[in-house]
Design goal:
It is a single chain. The chain is α+β, with helices and mostly antiparallel strands. 39% of the residues lie in helices and 8% in strands. The chain is built from 10 helices and 5 strands. The chain has a 5-stranded antiparallel beta sheet with strand order 2-1-3-5-4, covered by helices on one side. Strand 4 and strand 5 form a beta hairpin. It is globular.
Length: 212
């Protein structure tokens, strides 16, 4: 299973904004973006503050890379999601974002059962969750309305899940999802509306990038 293994704080610095890829740590002074808010690499600090007009291609590329970074998806997979969206009737950009939101690792994160998508991905990979009653270890599984997710009974004995209900209670569950912290389970009620998805993402530029 291919995955990004470089420091994720570099991704925030590259986009010149916090993407909150490390959960609660991003809200503290330990966040690398707070200490080094310039671009990564040997020329990152030297170019800080210099105005540079971006071309249309550059803006499209950055929008695509930003979306990939937020959801933790590599290029081949991201392109496949775009292909799925373009073959579906509706607004291509919105459908693509809905597919990304419906990934199992993202749903678990949106339910508040994991502090960030990276940990949600790891929890799924280790087989801690059941989808519609069946064990799965595929974080990229795309769910649909009506699908149920729950923590395996055996996994509830794991220290990782011991205080999960108490921790998750402090986190809001997305409106398009339903969760039960007593049983550590949840359900997909519907696909999210555009207003319920990260407003800092520009899906139109992503569509333009792949439509060149």
């Amino acid at each position: 299973m291919a995955r990004y293994i470089e420091p994720v704080c570099k991704l925030c610095r590259r986009e010149n904004e916090k993407l909150f890829l490390k959960g609660e740590r991003c809200f503290t002074q330990k966040c690398a973006f707070e200490r080094r808010s310039y671009g990564p690499g040997q020329h990152g600090q030297a170019s800080q503050g210099r105005g540079k007009r971006m071309s249309d291609y550059s803006r499209q590329l950055r929008a695509k890379q930003k979306a990939r970074s937020v959801y933790g998806v590599l290029e081949k997979q991201f392109r496949r999601y775009f292909g799925m969206a373009i073959r579906t009737r509706g607004i291509t950009g919105l459908i693509m974002l809905q597919i990304l939101e419906a990934r199992l690792d993202n749903v678990i994160y949106r339910m508040g059962l994991a502090p960030n998508r990276a940990q949600a991905r790891q929890m799924v990979s280790h087989g801690h969750f059941l989808v519609n009653g069946r064990r799965t270890d595929v974080p990229s599984m795309v769910l649909k309305a009506g699908d149920t997710i729950q923590v395996r009974e055996e996994s509830k004995k794991n220290g990782l899940f011991k205080d999960l209900a108490e921790t998750a209670e402090k986190t809001n569950c997305a409106l398009w999802l339903e969760r039960d912290l007593k049983t550590l389970s949840g359900r997909v009620l519907r696909m999210p509306d555009r207003g319920e998805i990260d407003g800092n993402l520009n899906e139109q530029l992503v569509v333009e990038y792949y439509s060149r």
